[in-house]
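Translate sequence into structure tokens.
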Amino acid sequence: MEVDAAAVERLRSEPALASLRRSLDLAYRDPGRAAAMDAFYAGFVRPGDLVFDVGAHVGDRVGSFRRLGARVVAVEPQPVCLRALRAIYGGDAEVAVVEAACGARPGRVEFFVNSRNPTVSTASAHFLQAAEGAAGWAGEEWDARVEARCTTLDALLAEFGAPAFVKIDVEGFEDAVLTGLDQPLPALSFEFTTIERPIAQRCLDRLTTLGFTGFNLALGDEMSLALPDWLSADRMAAHLRALPHEVNSGDVYCVSGHHRPPSR
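Result follows.
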């Protein structure tokens, strides 16, 4: 599936979407990054699979999952990001864009918007508190609040079917997203940050109860697994606690059953 490049260029040129320009460039104007992303996710996603992208932002992962032949449900609450997703993927029948946050229960949720840097907008008030004064987070300002519809992973499964892979990147709300899941899945990833490590512990605890048995991680925006072996939840928790603050963020990859994509 080819991304609508003309739509990307139109979005880049709109003054109202200037805050998304860096994200759009990273997502759609860096072929090397796109190729690395495809090679990495091919360990988790196969043609014909269903994938959920929770916190889809401008859709760089959506594009990768589509290039791998998967059907995608893209979940995103931010109006500016939704505008980008619909412009780029609106003509693709294999992408469903869901206008919502994802959390522990259906309803409404207060969403904190960072207008200058929408990629760190969040539904977690605790995340804002953790970022205040933290090294590497200077200058970030959540200057607006909106009320967003909130769905759950269980509700998405009921509507769209069971996914082969779920990517969760919601800036400190990952534990709430996993609270809304009550059934096992083959694989998923969740973002962690070094300013809120207890969230990762709660995620690991929840995933253990759901039957996940293998854990690895990618640091920052790296498209490779950082560890040579898949770890238990306890060993992954210890590894995350030991990471230096400067790592800032990354993604924990979690699998159930015996399938283990290759590590480095």
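Note: The two ends are 28 Å apart (CA to CA).
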